[in-house]
Amino acid sequence: MGLVVLVRVQVLVGFGVFGVFWGAWGALIPEIQRQAGVGNGELGVAVLMIGLGALGSMRPAGAAVDRFGRSAVAVILLLMAAAAVLPGLAHGARVLMAALAVLGAASGAVDVGVNTLASEEESRSGRLMNAAHACFSACVVLGALGSGLALERGLAADRVLLLTAVLLAGAAVVIGFPGPAGRPSAASRRDRRRPAVTDRPLLALGALCALAYLVENAWQSWSAVMLRSVFHTGSGAAAAGPVVFAAAAAVGRLAGHGLTARLPQRHLLALGAAVAAVGTLGAALAPGVRSMLAALVVAGLGTSVCAPTILSLAGEQARPEVRSSAVAVVASIGYGGCLLGPAAVGLTASSAGLRGALCGVAGVAAVLALVSLLSSTRPRPLDAEG
Predict the structure, then answer these.
(1) pTM score, whole prediction
(2) CA quadruple 195, 197, 198, 201: dihedral positive or negative?
(3) Which residue ranges traverse the bilayer (predicted)?
């Protein structure tokens, strides 16, 4: 029992520190943008580099985690700790793009690593994915709040990023602590050959996960920018956007565990996406700060259940011996939407305005709801060959 608790704590620490970083990042974006001297369009291109960096690292990271287990995740967290400070040192669009490409590579690897560890532990000792994602969202709130307070007190963005790097390094130590989730045996690795990324059910779920992450991270990355550029709030007040959104997501994910017992997962996914579409449209068209924050609560509650539900469906479609690899494939595809979404918002905002770009995000949420509702695909077990 003690070892099970240890492993679960390690998983939650990984998700939690990852959330702290991205919460701080959401609040810091306006300051990073000002320091680098870039406009919305250039910022969008720079953020796109996060996605490109991640797409190049996710598959190698998955292979490393399959081979070396938790030790690989610890090393990856150390690499992200080093990369976390780079955006705070960037001046100019090109340097910012390079810094975010490195950060994206490290972040994509961490995302695959912690989700794989969570799915492994979930298959051994019961449900964990919703709790892990709720921990991520709650820590996004803490990261954004802490970052906003630090900015209000005059702490520079590079110092805030340095503090997140220290936390990431600490998480690496915790996850690297010896326990039962270490390197799998050779026999285990043979039994757990990963499903191919071309498996149609996994591709379909990965595409849905990409849409869900696109909506979620669009608001996490751009809500502070909208509050500051549209409503002209200060740096600390702008942090209220990602804080409110992430807090609603944390509450929604905790409630989602109970809803899974009452609704089929695909219906829960469709309902969440529909609520997210309504909230996103309301926030994009809000006439004032309060109405925008109220709509962000709705958007956060809706999006909160989407990605964890999709990841659970991936595990449901896979045989137990390859469940973690199936979840890793879907998470990897979905992560593209997580990171490319904010970039698309920035690029669209340069021509259609930020409100128009975020209305497009509402359309993405509506598409996710419609596809989820109309989908008639039934789960089928996937073996190692797919």
Answers:
(1) 0.74
(2) positive
(3) 5-25, 37-56, 68-89, 130-149, 161-181, 202-222, 234-256, 268-286, 292-314, 326-347, 353-374
